[in-house]
Structures are given as structure tokens and as C-alpha cells.
Records
---
Amino acid sequence: MEKLNFVNTIVRPEDLESLKEVAASLFSEPETQSQSLLDTLATLGLMDLTPERRALKAATALVNRAENQGVSAFKSKVGSPFFRLSAKQRFVLMGLHRLKWSYARIADCLGIEITSVAELAWLARITLQMSMATSEKSGPGSNRVAGSGLASHSSCPEFVSSSPWTQKFLDEECTVRERTFLQNHLMVCDSCRMVLGRARKLLFDLEIAIPKHNIDESIELDSISNLADSMRARKVVGRFGFWNDLLRFLNRVDTKLLLFALGALLVFWFSTKV
Ligand SMILES: [Zn+2]
């Protein structure tokens, strides 16, 4: 119980769970996942941040770390369709599929526009679908790009190939107005319903490709609580160390004598000037 309280001083339990999944989308080995998470929390734990902000910054730091490591972040899974995606793409898919994060939250983590998140997500999904189809060696036609289709009525929503409405609809990122329009339109338009159906299947098929974390719970709890201990110690030293040292210095007998001598010298110097 005590241990859990220590952990909670750095990161909320629900954020820790999310961050473990983020780490799993970026690093292939459980040891690298937990080590990266610990290093990140150690750095951010010292900063004065709200728990919400700290969790976001931790996710950002993990993405940056994976990007810097390049291939060595996923040594054992170089051939896996998921790990062939870029670190940012893997993070976006984890955020959307497993963590159910909004585009806005992901945009905040990556420091990009919301529209860029939609484009990044669509490219990642299409790339992953094609790469999964290739690695499964399925028959021709199975790697057909889901969701692409030509609008057959003038009232059909515009299909932007880099960021289609189907994805926005399924990720629940439409405004109430857009959603109402689409729902009404889908009731009367077969081709849009078909396009949406293909996109829904795409998103569903990708679920199995997104890894789950397997960080050992007990090891992880121990190391995070040790980390919390050492951070608390560092924080105290960081905050009060300077003043403690100064007080100790001023209380020393030789320091007092030195200050007295300096004072006398100043008085003498001033008296000769006048
Ligand atoms: Zn339509």
C-alpha cells in the first residue's frame, strides 16, 4: 500500500497504465519498455507539473526517445508490420485504438496540428493494412485500400484521400453537425455506406497488430517506488541544499573571523579616504 502511494506521487495509476502501452508501441523488448519509462519518469518527476501535464510530457519524451534510437528500439521485431511504421505512426495508432485518445490529445503530445494527426493516422492505417496483407501473402485484391471510393451522388461527403471522412466518423471526431449530416446521408446512400463499411473493417483488422505491454508488474512497481524514493531525496537536497550550506558556512568560526577582519579593513580604508 505504502509502495503504491509512492508511485502515485510521480504518476497517476491510470496514466502509468497508458504510458506502459505507449512504451509497448515504441519499443519491442519488455526491458527496454520499462527502462525507457523509468528514465522518462525520473526526469519528469523532478519537474513541477500537474499529473495530467506530466503524463502528456512523458508520452512525448518516449516518442522522441524511440525516434532517436531508430531500429535499435525494436531489434527483435524489425520484420513486424507494426514496427515497420515510424515511431510517431505507432504512437498515433496506440493512442487511437487502445487508449482511445482524442486527436487533440495526440496533437498536443506530438506538437502538431489536429489535421496532421488525422493524416498521420490514415497513412499509418493504410500502410499497416498493406504491409499486413503482404506479410500474410494473401491473394490479390485483399490489400485493396479500405475506405477509398468515389462518391456517386452530388450530396455525398467529399472523400479526401489523405484524411477521409470515414476515419473521422469512426474515430468519433466529427462535430454534432457533421455527425448528423453523415448519419442522415448514410441512411439513403449505398455507396457511402459501403465505403464506411470498408473503413470499419480496416480499423477492426488492425487491432490485432497493435502490441500489448508485458512489463512485469512486480519488478516495475519496485523500481518505480525506488525511483520515487531517490527523487524525493534529490528534490529535498535541490530545494534546501544551498541555504543549508550557506548557513553552515556562516556559522564556522574561521568564517566569522574572516568577515570581522574584512569589516575592519573596510572601516580602516574608509577612514583613510575621509
Ligand atoms: Zn453518399
---
Amino acid sequence: MEVGHDSEKEVIVDYAGSLFRAHKVRGSLYACPICKNALFYNEKDLIRHIVSHAMASEEAI
Ligand SMILES: [Zn+2]
């Protein structure tokens, strides 16, 4: 059965009690849910990247 979604699925990453929504692609890579361009091999790098997005938007306020 065709899914037509390039084996991408949504996952919830739990980091220090904070839940982050992310996309997992090709089984082992995490894709940034914000810019959708960055790919990461582990949750730690993904979270650091998401946090940097959050901090950037706080500075803009
Ligand atoms: Zn990003």
C-alpha cells in the first residue's frame, strides 16, 4: 500500500520534561519541525536546534 509520504512520521521527543514535536525521516533522522530543512542524527542536537529557534524569536520581541 502506497503512503506517499516518504516514510516520514511525527514523533514526540521528551527532553528534560519538555515535549517537542518533530518529524522522523528515513527511520533514524530527526527533521526540524520549524524550518524543516535541518536534519539531526540524535535528539540532543535536534532539541538544541529547536531551542535556538525559540531563543531567536524571543530576542525578536
Ligand atoms: Zn530549524
